[in-house]
Prior knowledge:
The complex is a heterotrimer of chains A (117), B (173) and C (617). Chain A is mainly α and 117 residues long. Chain A has helices spanning 2-29, 47-61, 66-77, 92-112; one strand spanning 113-114. Chain B has six helices and seven strands. In chain B, helix 3 packs parallel to helix 6 (163-172).
Amino acid sequence: MKYLLIFFIIFYSFANASETETRSISITKNLRCLVCEGQSVYESNSDFANDIKNFVKKEIKKNKTDKEIYQFLISKYGESILFNPSLSLKNIALWLGPILFFLVGAFIIFRRLNVTK
Amino acid sequence: MYLKKGFKIFSLFIIFIFIFIIFYLALFQNKKDFEPRVMIGKKMPNLISQSLFDNSNKSLDQIFLNEILVVNIFASWCAPCKIEHPFLMKLKQNNIQIIGINYKDNNKNAKNFLEKYKNPYQEVLIDSKGELSINLGVFGVPETFVVDKNFKIIDKHIGPIDNKFVNKILKLK
Amino acid sequence: MASNIANLILILSILFSFLCNLFFFKKKNNLSIFFFNASSYLIILSFFLLIYFFCSSNFNISAVYENSHSLKPLFYKFAGTWGNHEGSLLLFIMIVGIYGLLFSRYYNDDSKFKSWVIFFQNNIFLIFLIFLITTSNPFDLIVPTPIEGLGLNPILQDPLLVIHPPFLYLGYVGFSLTLSLVLSALINKQLNDRWAKICWPWVMTSWVFLTIGISLGSIWAYYELGWGGYWFWDPVENASLMPWLVSTALIHSLLVLKVRNQMKNWTSLLAILTFSFSLLGTFLVRSGILNSVHAFANDPDRGVFILLIIFFITSVSLVIQILCSSSELKNKFLFFSKESFVNINNLFLLFFLFVVLLGTIYPIISSIFNKTISIGPVYYNTILAPFVFIFLVLMSIGPLLKWSQSIGIKNLNPSLMIFFISILLSFLIIQVTRQNDLILYLGILTSLVLIFTLFYEIFKNIKKGSFYYPRLCSHLGVGVLFLSIFFNAYYSKTKDFEISMGETKVFDKLSIKFLKQDIYKINNYLEMKAEFKIFIGEKVFNLTPSVRRYLQPDQITSETSIQPTLFSNYYLAINFPDQNSTTLGTRYYYNFFIHGIWLGLFLIIFGGVLSVFKKRV
């Protein structure tokens, strides 16, 4: 019975660990390492990156949501720490621009096509 | 037909000049603007940790004396910290309160460092895992924060401080 | 003394280049070509001289002093020649010269056309040579002679990284000849199907080299950087991807020009844009405008100079294109015809280009407004994915269509069949592996549609023996590549953990034991190697990842240890040990189907190589 309990504790901690880890990896991949040349926190071995990685793991264990963790880091480091441009009005060009480009291009081609079967 | 071609060439040049200006400006952008300065204007986070000197738990708002405070992140293994040290001593000599945050350091090495170079700090808090520094939005050593008497961050300096920064602080007193 | 000889060669080269122009204006074509050739040979000579200086550690020469060290192994001294701004710029110029030399040697039909091509090639050569001599001369003299050099970035001391730049350059610098060809054709009113046939092998050769160069970079990132990834949408990676996308569009457009003598203006525009994007890439990497692990010389003044060069070359080319563009009949294409689908192909490729360009440039633009923003993989993957799916399907249909005829809808019945089979198979795969993700499903589905359609084509035509296997090979490569990308993205596993010596960690049906660690001193670095034993079911194998501390300059790198299987890799990397810690930070990756990615890239490249040599439309 004792061994079963130990087994479940170990198993649970690994199961939990993998969930923490998946989240930790996905969050840190989305954070920019501010002392590196364009790498993510996940992909860096610098002191800063390691600090942030430990911090993220701790916050996940405290049951903070992804959004809360991002918000905290943004409040300390600014929006530039995030890799994923947020869907704000300023970034609308980034998402709408390509769509517009495609539509204009498609229209130009369409004019050149003789759509008769 | 020539009008159409002329128009094309004209608009080409307009676009090119526009693009050129953008890239030109970007090239000479002062990289200093990439430093996170979001903490300036915000209330100083209350940092709580062990003191380097007597191992007791101290919190920043306990140490705070309602006057200008300088918070300096340093480490014994950090070369630029040695360079800025004389300027910290100058601040101390002018009775500016300085709190040190010892970043990811070995306690013995840190104490030796202060003994060798002299101690400019009223108090030093240990930050062995870099957690306090994240609270301040720090990403390297050394960094220095200036806190006013209302416990608000009013300035920060990334990298070793210089005479200019010291004078700025002295003027505030 | 050595420096003086080298500088003399450079000056002589510039002089000959000017003479080439002089004789061209005097309509003495043979002399003009002669002096261009001579000039190019001189630059080749100077490059070999630079190699010699590097290998013999001649620290009188500025490039050698700044980038080499006597302790470096000979092979990396040799490679150090182009591992720096000045040396790589000399390589750049040399390749412009080499492409010109090769064209001069192998093309002898129309001497007027030839002289124009050499003229343009010569001026591209000359502009960059002047830039080199005035701002980035590798042969500057250092007096007094330093005892030792400043060393080379240890990350660059890797065989893959050594050959990566030369291949990239043979690729995108090769498009200089494409530019010269198109400008000559425009001015001489010879932009037609014959020109497209002449152009074809030169464009394909550059395209092949560029693809190889990009692939090598990807392979290097995977094996060396230690994070299990092969593409990071890093701005410098993007800088090489952009000319690749334009040149791929150009190749398809050239096809229409070759076969139907149509799409002249569009093809000429693409040809000009290809080299412009090559130049843009050069600018982005060298000017310090970007933040990246790759970025070379951070020198804004050089950046302005390069910017001016790009604008000059591009604007002159576009003005020529506008003035000389033919007023061709804008005949309409039928929708279900090959020409129409090439147009659609171009639309998609240029859309991809626009996305990559926007993502790369946007941080630069927002930096002017004091706003820092970073664009990571999530942006690119999100916006590209839906279009990639549609593109793969269209790519399977396009080659089935005919030229200037509309194919009847019922001729596409096989496609419909293949579509249904793929839907079922993809669904099966998703269910069996229990990964209910729509993106994965669509990715597998569309890749399979492409792959199966190609198999169908091969099967249908194998009796006739009349299929065009270069295209089949490359398109198959694309299908395999995307299938592998999706498999790799969704079925790989990763785990980060701390482990102490003698400890065993168990997860994912395997166990890892940290056996021992050793410290070695080799050449110019200190290495800590950790040995792990891995047990998976019946299989047992050892992996030995390590970290290195280089002496000159002081830098730490991580070396991965990989156990390959048929399709995948078991991959281990360690972190630099913390001073106060008794445990070792370790990263384990199971990279599923990574070999499929390399196979896909290989097929794309091989198809291109076949295309250069195969004499057929």
